[in-house]
Amino acid sequence: MPRGIPNPAAMYGISPRAWGFEVSIVRNGTRYYKQFGRASYGSVEQALLQAQDWRDEVVRSVPPLPRRTQAEKLRANNTTGVSGVFCQVSAGGKVRAWVAKTYLGQDEILRTDFPVGAMGQAAQTLAIEERARQLERMAGLSRLHPAEEAIRTGPAVHSAEPRLPKRSKSEIRRCTNSSGVSGVHFKSPNIGHPGYWLAITYTAGKGSVSKAFSIKEHGADGAKRLAIEERERQLEQKLNATGVATPSPRQETHRRRTGTLKARQTP
Fold it and tell me: What is the pTM of this model?
């Protein structure tokens, strides 16, 4: 959104990118950041839902500071050691007055001046005491965005449709993939070779499992079909070994045709 114009509630803390979405929220000096790629979740819609879920979790579990705590923080240009208390200096460099000032709201600013000429050295002490009284009128949490409180205290405002598990890198179908199924690729060693279809699956820390099916032996369609079936077996073996739910190629094909895919249950 343009500078000065907050994002709508659904996009609070979320920025669209060419590859998906990124979430960036700062809480009490700590930045919470995570990326959600459309390739990792199967679609732009799923990536956005996952980003919103994660954003909501951060907002609800890490609330902003109380307004009073925020107001008591010393600014870099503070020279008195007390937030909201500063001195007025004359043209000659002499302290003319001590001031206690507190911003409560857009139309409510508390300010009291304590002239040194009338109150002497007690002016600074009186300003500090007045600042403490002003802070007692400050309640609630810091407002970071119009949607902040609604997200933190209310129900989710986005879709309740099932969320798909994040795909591993081996399940993401690359733009160069010609089979329409992740992990199934056509290979040709040289120009005169009829080629083969390869099924390959990676498992983190365990390397890869692969099997090739010759077009000369099985025909183009047969070799591709066998590779897809082999890929399904590899994914099932990976699921049994890791316990991580992974959509099979047939589920992937169904999802592309219908736009839906039920989330698979994991133990």
Answer: 0.52
